[in-house]
């Protein structure tokens, strides 16, 4: 019998690549094998044009700072997400300093993060948000302005053609970034392969079964003309994006019961016109429409992919039953089970605004899409922009504390009680927080090794085990150190 694989990673995206890179540092002798359905890794949700590449750090994403009924701004989620992104930056900085990742400009570049709103109520909200965040060590470089001349200096495309009487406001953090998670994934996988890991492309995992010995039997099917193959693994991570849910269901672990998925598709307008691109250097986020999911917050983004800059605006959300961009039309229906049917119905009944929004987006034509773009870039010429289709996002449906189905806009780690298998469901903020999510997964699945691993983890992520922002001086040092290592300063 072939010796079992120590770690099987299903899916060749940023989550699997991150987990593999961390494990390679902690346990260099462990064997790692990656299974990817497509001909190349990082072609689905991790692909640069299938995600917004913001480097989610809550500097500009207004959905992370809701206004409460008493008028105050809730900042806890924004601070948590920024903390998580700083953990990812520390790990990337470590790999760069060790020579294990290439020139960081190949995957991360400085791009200011801005929030932009109009209307008196929204201006007042943004002012309150700024006041609530500006004293925090992770947000203390944030600037606020309601002066059109200043905002024009920050982002020239936003102002020409706008009514002078319109109340507007913006915040800016110059230290924001654009991240090409597709490139980062490929570099992490290159590091793994150089260290002995194997990548099986065009090989789809079709079943996962626990053996009597407590191992996992993995059945795969080659996409082109070969018989099924079988592998055994001591530990399995299902990082297959939207396909994670059906695979975890096939594993039979009780922890997956009650979970379902709601797929949301997206499209963006993109321009590569160098004259337009040269006039906008920022990621400008606004406020979501009523009923819109957080992933549909409109934004006008500078993107840096393969060293070339472009602009994209969107997303325009829609619905498809596929769980992956290259998935099957039957994906949604194949995951319906008796244990998740009621939560799905409850979510459908309680999210009428979302359903209404998605129907409106599906019916929207090019003129409506351009009208949305012109709310941010009033002088936009439709001839400069073309439509691209982004990746699928499968939002988590789960039971709340009262047993009712709820739609969760975030990520969820599902792990067997014995820690032998785990998977990740959900979407945003996703890739930006891959490192802390994978560290938490390791703590959960390998509790007996946690103490032994701590010194190495702290060498890779010095803030591990504590909140970075609890110490202002330490926060500043860490931000400066990672900025220097990643060539962002």
UniProtKB/TrEMBL annotation:
Cofactor(s) required, per the database record: FAD
Major enzyme class: oxidoreductase
Pathway: Carbohydrate metabolism; tricarboxylic acid cycle; oxaloacetate from (S)-malate (quinone route): step 1/1
Keywords, ordered alphabetically: FAD, Flavoprotein, Oxidoreductase, Tricarboxylic acid cycle
UniProt cross-references to InterPro entries, sorted A to Z: FAD/NAD-bd_sf, MQO
Keyword DNA repair among UniProt keywords: no
GO biological process terms on file: tricarboxylic acid cycle
Catalytic activity: (S)-malate + a quinone = a quinol + oxaloacetate
GO terms, molecular function: (S)-2-hydroxyglutarate dehydrogenase activity; L-malate dehydrogenase (quinone) activity
One Pfam assignment: Mqo
Protein name: Probable malate:quinone oxidoreductase
Gene encoding the protein: mqo
């Amino acid at each position: 019998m072939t010796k079992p694989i120590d770690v099987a990673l299903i899916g060749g995206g940023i989550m699997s690549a991150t987990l593999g890179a961390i494990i390679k540092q902690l346990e260099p002798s462990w064997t790692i094998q990656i299974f990817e359905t497509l001909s190349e890794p990082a072609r689905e949700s991790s692909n640069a044009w299938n995600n917004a590449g913001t480097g989610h750090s809550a500097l500009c994403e207004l959905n992370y700072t809701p206004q409460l009924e008493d008028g105050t701004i809730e900042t806890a989620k924004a601070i948590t997400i920024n903390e998580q992104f700083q953990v990812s930056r520390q790990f990337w900085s470590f790999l760069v300093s060790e020579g294990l990742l290439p020139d960081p400009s190949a995957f991360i570049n400085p791009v200011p993060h801005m929030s932009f709103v109009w209307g008196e109520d929204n201006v007042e909200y943004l002012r309150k948000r700024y006041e609530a965040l500006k004293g925090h060590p992770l947000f203390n470089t944030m600037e606020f302005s309601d002066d059109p001349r200043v905002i024009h200096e920050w982002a020239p495309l936003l102002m020409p053609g706008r009514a002078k009487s319109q109340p507007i406001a913006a915040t800016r953090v110059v230290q924001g970034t654009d991240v090409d998670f597709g490139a980062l994934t490929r570099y992490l996988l290159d590091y793994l392969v150089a260290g002995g890991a194997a990548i099986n492309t065009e090989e789809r995992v079709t079943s996962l079964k626990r053996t009597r010995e407590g191992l996992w039997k993995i059945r795969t099917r080659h996409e082109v003309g070969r018989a099924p193959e079988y592998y055994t693994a001591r530990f399995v991570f299902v990082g297959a994006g939207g396909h994670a849910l059906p695979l975890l269901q096939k594993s039979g672990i009780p922890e997956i019961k009650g979970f379902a998925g709601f797929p949301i598709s997206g499209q963006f307008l993109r321009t590569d016109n160098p004259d337009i691109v040269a006039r906008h250097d920022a990621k400008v986020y606004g406020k979501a429409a009523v009923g819109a999911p957080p992933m549909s917050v409109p934004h006008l983004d500078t993107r840096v992919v393969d060293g070339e800059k472009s602009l994209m605006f969107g997303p325009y959300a829609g619905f498809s039953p596929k769980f992956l961009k290259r998935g099957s039309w039957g994906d949604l229906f194949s995951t319906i089970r008796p244990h998740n049917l009621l939560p799905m119905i409850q979510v459908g009944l309680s999210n009428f605004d979302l359903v209404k929004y998605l129907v409106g987006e599906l019916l929207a034509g090019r003129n409506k899409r351009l009208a949305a773009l012109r709310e941010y870039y009033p002088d936009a010429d439709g001839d400069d922009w073309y439509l691209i289709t982004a990746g699928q996002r499968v939002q988590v449906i789960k039971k709340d504390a009262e047993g009712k189905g709820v739609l969760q806009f975030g990520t969820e780690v599902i792990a067997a009680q014995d820690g032998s298998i785990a998977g990740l469901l959900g979407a945003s903020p996703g890739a930006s927080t891959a490192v802390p999510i994978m560290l938490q997964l390791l703590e959960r699945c390998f509790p007996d090794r946690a103490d032994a691993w701590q010194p190495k983890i702290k060498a890779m992520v010095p803030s591990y085990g504590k909140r970075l922002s609890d110490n202002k001086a330490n926060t500043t040092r860490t931000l400066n150190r990672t900025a220097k290592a990643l060539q962002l300063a």
